[in-house]
Every structure is written in C-alpha cells, then in structure tokens.
Amino acid sequence: MISFKENSILNKSEVIIPLTFLLISGIVFIPVFGVNPSFKVGLLIHYISFLTLGLFFEIPELSLNGWCLFKTRDQDRIIKDESLFQRIFMIRYILTHYIAPSAGIMTITSGLYLILIGKTSLTQGWLFWLLCTSTIGLYKGIIQHRFYIKKILCVLHEKKEISKLQFYLRSPFDNICVFSECPTYLFNYWLACSKPGWLPNPFFNFTFSLEQWVHSRALVGVLMVGLGGFLIFPLRFLIKKYSRVYALGF
Asked: Distance from the CA of 2 to the CA of which of 40, 101, 119, 217 falls in 20 to 30 A?
C-alpha cells in the first residue's frame, strides 16, 4: 500500500510538475528569452489555460466533492465503499496537485504577458480585481485544497483514523473553501468577458504611481502575485484553527 507521507516520487512530482510549468511559462512569456509570442497566440494560451482550469479541474473536483459529501451521510457507507473512496480521492489528488496548479500558473503568467504587450493598465478596476482573485485562488488552492485532499488520501490508504473519516470529510471550513472556487471562477470569467468600467480599483493612485515608477504594468502585476505569498500565513493560521484535518499533521 502506498504511503503518501513517505513516497518520495509523489512528494517530488507534485512540486516538480507545477515548477516545470512555471519554467515553461517563463521561457515563453519573459521577453529576454526571445520567444515573445504574438498577442493572438498569448491570448489563445490564456484561453486554453483558463478553460482547462474550469473543464478539467473545477467541474470534476466540485462534482466529486459533492458526491463525497452525499456518500458520507453515515460512517457505515464510507466503510462499505472504502475502495471506491480511495479511487475517487486519487483522482482528486491528481486534479489538485497537478492539473490545478499547472493550469493556474499558465493562466496567470499568460495574463501578465497580455498586460505587457497589450498595454493594459492595472488601474482599471476589472483587471485589478481579476488579478487579485486569481492570485488568492492560486495560493488558497496550493495551501488549503491540496493539504485537505492529501490528508484524506493518507487516511484512506494507510487505514488510520478511518473511524473519524466522516468527521474529516465533512469539515465545514474545508468544504466552504472548496466550494468557494466555483463562484470565484465564474466571477473571473464574468470580469474577463464584460470588463465592467464601473468597477473601481481602490488603490488607483498608488497603482498608477507604481506603474510609472517601474515603467512596466506587467511588473506591477508580478509584484501583486508575489505579494500574494503573504497569504500563506493567514491561510495556515485558519487551517490550524478551523480545519478538521489539521490534527492529521501539517
């Protein structure tokens, strides 16, 4: 039986694959490397990445999470379908550890590239909020969603704490975080399509000054994504305080 805590191949691959997509996006989208795709090609990559995130992560993951909640109405049902739960969570592990971060990285980096060559300013409210929500979603997925899925999978495969599996699976905090991804994705889709002019950037003056100072709108976007890393600390605090699976170890 696979031990996910000790399996070095899985532990390394779940880091290497997303980092590989980060490297690819750097080679494709950072101007000094000389690839510099046209705006149409960059836009196509952005569309494909965003649709991949929706079709091959959001829809199957939220559907499977809903199925798991339905099936865990009583503990006996979990024990009866234990092998099925193992397969389901292995699929969810692939979705959350490989597809979601890879597609998310490509979506954000291609979007930053479009800002660079499209001369679009982050002073526009719709673009500012689009980058904010995308950044929050990326870090939330990496810190909370992956942790939740992997810990449940460890319980299923290592057959420890099986008696408490219903308690872990129906964690209110974790399920709220998981299901919040759908409205966030739809909100981002709406922003990208409608580009509402009435939506303000609350930091308009600061954003404008920063763009003038660094002489690059895209670099301001990179800084925003980088600053999003500070979300790791409050996310870890919330997981520690409210997630039922935290007791399984961080």
From this structure: 101
Half-sphere exposure of 123 (CA within 13 A, CB side): 12
Q: Distance between CA 70 and CA 139 in Å, rounded?
A: 28
CA angle 62, 18, 13 (to 5 degrees): 95
Encoded tokens for 163: 């008696």
- Note if the pTM is more than 0.85: yes
Q: Residues 2-34, buried b or exposed e (16+ Cβ, 10 A)?
A: eebeeeeebeeebeeebeebbeebeebbbeeee
φ/ψ region of 195 (left if φ > 0, alpha if ψ in -120 to 50, else beta) reads: left
What is the average pLDDT value for the chain, to the nearest integer? 91
- 80: amino acid identity, one letter: K
pLDDT tens, residue by residue, 167-177 = 999 999 999 99
For residues 10 and 20, the model is more confident at 20
Are 163 and 76 within 8 A, CB to CB? Answer: no
